[in-house]
């Protein structure tokens, strides 16, 4: 068995893929307000910046930057997942439990990549913003409502038709087996 080591870099910037246990679920967009609230609560407990994000029905991609003296991204994901799960349970939704009796809404693990430089950041942010097109949810990235692309457009970082020409390269990175 391969021992996976996470890169705990204080003040680091990281790309994440976080997935629901049931890949057929649409809980993330069905309960988008609960997910937003879960992120707000986690950021209040332990601050971090969300540099880019896209929420899809069954998974999400995000880029976080941590404070200079902090490397605890696992604690932040634990807080987001727990708050969202509690919120969904409070709606009365039926969530299966695992063999330990814990709610099995999320996959236990997540994928992370340490952002190395500006070019790597841009590549990962582009992947995040094009992801709804990659999954066939929309024809153009700006048509997907749950994306930081809209913030990038408002800030003048990207044009409103970014990625709509089909020329954005989306191969070679992102979640495995996607």
Automatic annotation (TrEMBL):
InterPro entries: RAYT_transposase, Transposase_17, Transposase_17_sf. Pfam families: Y1_Tnp. One of its GO terms (biological process) is DNA transposition. Residues 9-131 form the Transposase IS200-like domain. Gene3D superfamilies: Transposase IS200-like (3.30.70.1290). GO terms for molecular function: sequence-specific DNA binding; transposase activity. NCBIfam families: REP_Tyr_transpos. This is Transposase IS200-like domain-containing protein. It comes from Rhodopseudomonas palustris (strain BisB18).
């Amino acid at each position: 068995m391969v021992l996976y080591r996470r890169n705990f870099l204080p003040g680091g910037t990281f790309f994440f893929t976080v997935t629901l246990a049931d890949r057929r679920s649409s809980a993330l967009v069905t309960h988008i307000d609960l997910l937003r609230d879960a992120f707000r609560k986690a950021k209040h407990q332990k601050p971090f910046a969300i540099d880019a994000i896209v929420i899809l029905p069954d998974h999400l991609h995000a880029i976080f930057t941590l404070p200079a003296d902090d490397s605890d991204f696992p604690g932040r994901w634990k807080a987001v997942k727990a708050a969202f799960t509690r919120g969904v349970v409070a709606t009365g939704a039926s969530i299966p439990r695992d063999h330990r009796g814990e709610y099995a809404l999320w996959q236990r693990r997540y994928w992370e990549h340490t952002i190395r430089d500006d070019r790597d950041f841009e590549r990962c942010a582009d992947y995040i913003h094009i992801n709804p097109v990659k999954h066939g949810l929309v024809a153009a990235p700006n048509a997907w409502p749950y994306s930081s692309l809209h913030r990038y457009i408002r800030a003048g970082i990207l044009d409103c038709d970014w990625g709509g020409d089909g020329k954005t390269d989306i191969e070679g990175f992102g979640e495995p087996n996607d």
